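Exercise 7 asks you to align residues with tokens for two separate proteins.
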Amino acid sequence: MNVPCVRVPTSEGEAARRALADRDLVDQSYEITVREGSLYIPVTDASAAGSEFEVVEFEVDARETQTMPADILGFEPTYERLGDVVILDEHDPERARRIADGIADSDLRAETVVNRASKVKGELRVRDWDVLVGTSTETEHREYGCSFLLDIAEVYFSPRLATERHRVVEQVREGEQVFDMFAGVGPFVVPMAKRGADVVGCDLNAVAVDYLRENARRNGVEDRVTAVQGDVREVAADYEGWADRLVMNLPHSAGDFLDAAVRLAGEECVIHYYDIQHEDDPFGPGIEAIREAAEPEYEVRIDTERIVRSYAPHEYNVCVDVTLTAR
């Protein structure tokens, strides 16, 4: 039967499916289909898929009946998936346990089910988890053709930012020198290196840096990736004036590192600056902080102001892309 489908290359399939699922647009009545290097994802509303996706009419099969968590529980639970780990965010431990058991008894692929037990905390940006099903918190996550091994109990990683990461990665040109100041396990670093950039990834979390090295190896880009463990404010001295592009994805406190960013910047440098601000002025404080750190040494041009996602009531996680040009 011909139904509206988002068509993407198979290498981008999981990230596209996740982005559509986050917006409740995947039509579960039909099978996701692979054909000649493309993945066809049935959608419930073609007009809501957005300009970022190509929507076509395509013949797909009706989905065979599967037992999903909602069939067992009698309600649709909220969860997200990271590889074969299913993540809950339930305040009631009994409800969390019930949902975890429903997931385990369903046909949903899950080796481990966890519930958030704390907020992201500390310099290393990790959180506590209650493991409800399974034992291992290590998993493999695939995103836009890249594979990332990580342990959610030891490192920070957000699958919800896949689309935003891809937006930034697509801007990278072969031969660029890119510095990711808070690299984690490499979700910016690895795909940028796959586009032909030389990339330095720095992180304070030694475990994350070990995973970054492993992820560079498993994606075949270890020759273009340098992984550095330490405080980027100290590491910057070794790469002064080196970077053509900087990623500053530490939205709660990136402003504290702008002096280091300016030190790293080359004659012309693009900065992807992430921030969390009130809806009344989501971009102004970040732009002001960048100008204060970079001027008059650099001319500052604002390229993009982008709301990435809602973070809390009346607060947004945003990104400002700027270009610094030495005067």
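Second protein for Exercise 7:
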Amino acid sequence: MARPEPKCPIRVGDPCSLCFPGASGPQDCGLVYLVQSDPELREQLAAKRGEARQALAG
């Protein structure tokens, strides 16, 4: 059985490439933490996710 591949919460649609030094996945990625702790960046990410969903649906 294939292992599930974690997706990057920041780069919508891309797999986690462990781009942040020391990270073992999205769960302990410093970049994810920084984006999620900044209200403006979190809002921009939510908009980008919405655009990606619309592109897939339409």
